[in-house]
Amino acid sequence: MQALDESCSCSGHGDEAARFCHDNGKTSVTELLSTIRGPWALIYWQDVSSTLWFGRDAFGRRSLLVHWPSSDDSRFLLSSVSPESQINGITDSHTEYCASNNEFWEELSCGIYSIQFAASELHGCLVGKVRKHEWNNPELKKLIEWKRTSVEPKDEKVCSGSCLSPSTEGVTDISASLMRIEQNSISVPAQKVLIALRDSVMRRAAVNPIMQNNEVGGETSAPVAVLFSGGLDSMILAALLHRCLDSCSCSNGRGLNAAVFRDNEIDLLNVSFDGQFAPDRIAAKAGVKELQRIAPSRRWNLVEIDADLLKLTSEIKHVMSLISPSNTYMDLNIGLALWLAAGGDGWLYDETFNTFSVDKQHLKYKSEAKILLVGTGADEQCAGYGRHRTKYKQGGWFQLHEEMRLDMQRIWKRNLGRDDRCISDNGKEARFPFLDEDVIRILLEIPLWEVADLDQTCGIGDKKILREVARLLQLEDVASLPKRAIQFGSRIARESNKKNFGSNRAANQVSAGSVLIQNRTNDS
């Protein structure tokens, strides 16, 4: 905030504003905000210039909603979340104007905005023109454009990164292996991605006050949790988090409490709407065994969060307010699963008993971790969705690249604002290691055919480079798992289809995931 206070008060944009600030020896607000890495959303009143600054980071990792003045309501409003009273039909002086909450608010598109206000002739009113500013960081602009260095392979035989990679058989110390990679400057795609992801997780796990002195009942609780399906993305994050916490505990002079980290536990949050039979629950249990194999000294807390969709009436209303203005059944299913997972209220299998007796197998447990690592961005950047395979079959490498670029350029609207609202409602902070600026840059520098090979079958060619990363981390079992979205892996989509459409078959006939909740309610 101090830096913003000291920034140039010029609210203009373009070369003229830049020259003005430069001539006065100051940095403009736009220049300052363009230097920020990681997620942010901002509303800032600059009193000296009577200017309101607001915006979101270039990928929209933090929520910010806007209501632009309209003929029905001339007010300009900004909010991190839509008021729940509008969803529940409760009106007050602030919400009576709203005929439809989902139509009233919209996700603010990524960028930096300003309004310089001046008093109008109308009593009690201010007038101003909204300006959207260009990012001043050339490297950031390249990431936003999402242009890949090499999209289509040449006619000559393409050698994959795996054939260039030195053997990792028998490697037991991944940290030492990574050190050798850095020292020898080995430019192997999977190894470069691994290093970038490791650094990304490190940034999101270290030197944060909420990770220190986080005690419950006199015992140090796990400071960081992973949204855990047992799939490829969450397993990579869990394995890297283990290594990063170890590195944190050995760091000196960085403000870290080594005693907190050395015996740390890691919470793995897994949500299921089908008890022990949901695919994600089965995969999560297998994943924990694999993590225990590569990191036996770490305490892995698999937090089993079970839910019954038919019993979540008030919870559904609350989550509907959180996902707004998103308003499809797919949005609600994903939002509800994320909200429950972030709450961390479930059951923990205590292995110290080493028994399957009913009274000892599960203990009630609530994760107190304030940081939640989420795998969002992995599928969009590494061709993990079924539609990517369809585009590749229809139009080859170029069409695949265009579909992936579209996914990345709309991820702020389709995913991130919604997910941030659902997770932060529990007092947790969502962090997205796959959407780190350096990770995005590294993946764009790698030829597309090294990132994915969709001539191969599911579980092999999709997210090919991340499967190689998993093998470098000695996660052999998970490296061949197919993609499962949270709404399917947790079985909430199946339960939602039965509840709202009568059956999975009926839901599939109307593409239930894209059906608007409001429209369906009006029809019923």
From TrEMBL:
<dbReference type="InterPro" id="IPR051857">
    <property type="entry name" value="Asn_synthetase_domain"/>
</dbReference>
<keyword id="KW-0315">Glutamine amidotransferase</keyword>
<dbReference type="GO" id="GO:0004066">
    <property type="term" value="F:asparagine synthase (glutamine-hydrolyzing) activity"/>
</dbReference>
<feature type="domain" description="Asparagine synthetase">
    <location>
        <begin position="395"/>
        <end position="487"/>
    </location>
</feature>
<dbReference type="InterPro" id="IPR001962">
    <property type="entry name" value="Asn_synthase"/>
</dbReference>
<dbReference type="InterPro" id="IPR014729">
    <property type="entry name" value="Rossmann-like_a/b/a_fold"/>
</dbReference>
<dbReference type="Pfam" id="PF00733">
    <property type="entry name" value="Asn_synthase"/>
</dbReference>
<keyword id="KW-0061">Asparagine biosynthesis</keyword>
<dbReference type="GO" id="GO:0006529">
    <property type="term" value="P:asparagine biosynthetic process"/>
</dbReference>
<protein>
    <recommendedName>
        <fullName>Asparagine synthetase domain-containing protein</fullName>
    </recommendedName>
</protein>
<dbReference type="InterPro" id="IPR029055">
    <property type="entry name" value="Ntn_hydrolases_N"/>
</dbReference>
<keyword id="KW-0028">Amino-acid biosynthesis</keyword>
